[in-house]
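Q: Please design a sequence for this.
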């Protein structure tokens, strides 16, 4: 697990090494007063995943959550697509990232 700072939100990322699980991302407002509450919610989500499984967690349709799938049919292409999808969720428009190296300003929802 790790925390990334996006354009308008923080993103708590659950990534598993050497597995075919999707990358799980919780999106948290950049409001320090809400952080303890949001982190407790994420911790509860992780307990559901640990104790009841990922499918049970997904069935509850969590808010401010997304996942990215990795295509294992072509290692190199799969990574590039996964990375582009991750950047899009963190910063918005991928095209602006490739051209300027900086995230495009603007709102997006996940």
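A: Design:
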């Amino acid at each position: 697990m790790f925390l990334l700072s996006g354009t308008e939100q923080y993103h708590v990322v659950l990534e598993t090494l050497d597995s075919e699980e999707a990358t799980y991302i919780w999106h948290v407002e950049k409001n320090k007063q809400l952080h303890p509450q949001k982190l407790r919610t994420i911790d509860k989500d992780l307990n559901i995943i640990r104790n009841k499984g990922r499918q049970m967690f997904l069935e509850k349709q969590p808010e401010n959550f997304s996942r990215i799938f990795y295509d294992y049919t072509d290692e190199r292409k799969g990574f590039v697509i996964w990375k582009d999808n991750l950047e899009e969720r963190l910063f918005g428009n991928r095209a602006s990232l490739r051209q300027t190296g900086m995230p495009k300003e603007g709102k997006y929802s996940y």
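Q: Thanks. Anything notable?
A: Residues 18 and 104 are 32 Å apart (CA to CA). Strands lie at 2-5, 9-14, 23-29, 65-68.
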